[in-house]
Amino acid sequence: MQLALFIIFGALAVGGALNLLFQRHPINSALSLVVVMMSLAVLYWSLGAEFLAAAQVIVYSGAIMVLFVFVIMLLNAGEEEQTHGSRAAYTVGIPGAAAIFCLLSFVFLSERGALGRANVGGDLGNGVDNISWVSQTLFTKQLLPFEVTSVLILVAILGAVVLARKEQ
Amino acid sequence: MVPTAYYLVLAAILFSIGIAAFLIKRNIITIFISIELMLNAVNLTFVAFAHMWHQVSGQIFVFFVMVVAAAEAAVGLAIIISIFRTRQTLNVDEIDLMKS
Amino acid sequence: MSHLTNFEVFLLLSVIKVAVVLVITLMAVAYTVLLERKVIGHMQNRWGPSRVGPFGLLQPLMDGAKLFLKEDLMPLAVERPLFLLAPVIALSCALVSIAVVPFGAVTRVRGVDIFQVANINIGLLVILGITSIGVYGIALSGWSSNNKYSLLGSLRSTAQVISYELALGLSLVGIVLRAGSLNLRTIVESQSAHGLLSWNFFGGFQFVAFFIYLMAAYAETNRSPFDLPEAETELVAGYHTEYSSMKFAMFFMAEYGNMITVSCVASLLFFGGASSPFGHLIPAFGPAFLQAILPTFWFVAKVFGFLFLYIWVRSTLPRFRYDQLMSFGWKFLLPLAMANIIVTSLILAVRG
Q: Which member of B17, B60, B74 has the closest CB to residue A142?
């Protein structure tokens, strides 16, 4: 049954990613990415990362992708056409991506024994629940990166406001 | 019990689809979306390894990747909006003013 | 039931719980519409619907029949998949949040808690996540309608909802700091020690967080005084201009479903949920069956009080203008919520 959960949501993620590739209007690609992110959230939950699953839904698919959808609706640039450059990219892009996939999957599958098995839904933290463990590590050992990323977000907000402003 | 290698191969599939979309697509927003797809594939790899080694640092790293992706998406979309205002197009092939 | 395994009992009880909660929520949505019309009517010195059935109690049934039987228009130029998907997203996000709400005391039947559909360790984050996904219903409905006014209305409404989501989330951090967990059961149980005084609003001094939550929730559910995107005198009818009959009914139900969810969450987090205000002053009386049902009555009473507050505010306050709305959310509520977190955590650190 755990394998069934993985296969269903893995297939949904791959289907969403392929739909992203084959759709011509950017809004359909954005919505396919939302489907991919939600199925990835389920996979994170099955790997014991409850907080990350919630953060994926709230932050990634509930805020970042809403921003993407907002900008696509605002700019309203329509479907994309097949231009000169895209024909050349087809001949390089698809074999390149296939080569990278073959390399990565060869490495992972040949080490399959050493990687072990995932205990889907099992307890990861030896009795401490996931969110306590994450927050204890984040606020004690990883405090400096945490504070630095908050400064990063502040800088990004300021940059976005300045860049998107209309020229007076 | 699902072998960890399956999660990693799924992440590899998503990553390579992201690369293909990045190279093939001509609309700049779709290229941005494919970058987010690649970041998500990497996140899945981190979480799978965090599960395998029973460490939480993999999950912390994913948290930081999400934060940085949010910041990058905000600034990148602001840049795209200002490009659209000046060039009136979102097709990367037509934004070539700096070409010789 | 003794011949079924524990897993089968769990499955059967879960299906029954989901069906009961769904039916009760949908009936509550229908009768909240009636409640609103009657309460606003009485506040405006008129009767409200009173012809259909005694005291107008059959009005929701007639409204439902009318909406079902209306012609289902679909303009030619809409994008059909997104047009059909948007009300489904809106309604399902409004109904799913009830799954993590505990609406009674812990009562176990063969190990299954019958007063909560799903006891998730991060229940509060699940509610926030579902609220974030509900934004897509609004955004996609405006986009797929292929209509200037719908698009403008939906963009305005989306911007409003995502701005107030921040204040909503931050106002709940004080609660989590006090309870030490995101599990809704744990939060409710941490407020049941001394009755009224241990509720988060009174003894927990979270009244600032409560007001922030209330205002942010009114803006999230697009209700007065923040209902500019869907007011009839502005922008035609906003993002659901092109929708008719069943799909419009789904948006309508989604709005009232969101109201009920917000009321449930407010009563859980700030007013003790299913615990009685008298605490342990009144000794246990009556059969065990009554003891199990009584907390549910307290919970329903609190939710009803919040719904009445929603309707009261709607009939009293004038509407915000859009720029006033956005500056209120960003420049007032957000700094106030952050100040609340700082003060709460300082007091907790000094005390413990």
A: B60
Contact C155 A50 (CB under 8 A): no
Angle between helices A26-46 and B4-24 (to 10 degrees): 170
Does residue B99 lie in a domain region? no
Q: How far is A118 from chain B (nearest CA, A)?
A: 5
Please report whether residue B100 resides in a domain.
no
Interface membership of A157 toward C (CB under 8 Å): no
Number of folded domains in chain B?
Answer: 1
Predicted model pTM? 0.91
Q: Which residues of chain A from 65 to 94 reach within 8 Å of chain B, CB to CB?
A: 65, 67-68, 71-72, 74-75, 77, 80-81, 83-86, 89-90, 92-94
Which tens digit of pLDDT belongs to each residue from C37-87? 889 999 988 888 888 888 788 888 888 888 888 877 788 888 888 888 999
CA C331 to CA A157: how far, in whole Å?
15
pLDDT 10s digits, A74-128: 888 776 666 666 677 778 888 888 999 999 888 888 887 777 777 766 666 666 7
Q: Do A83 and B26 touch (CB under 8 A)?
A: yes
CATH number for position B79? 1.10.287.3510
Does residue B25 lie within any of the structural domains?
A: yes
Cα(C34)–Cα(C64) distance, integer angstroms: 12
CATH class of A2-122: mainly alpha
Tell me how far apart the alpha carbons of residues A7 and C300 are, in angstroms, rounded to a whole number: 41
Query: Is the Cβ–Cβ distance between B45 and A40 less than 8 Å?
Result: no
The ipTM estimated for the assembled molecules is 0.92
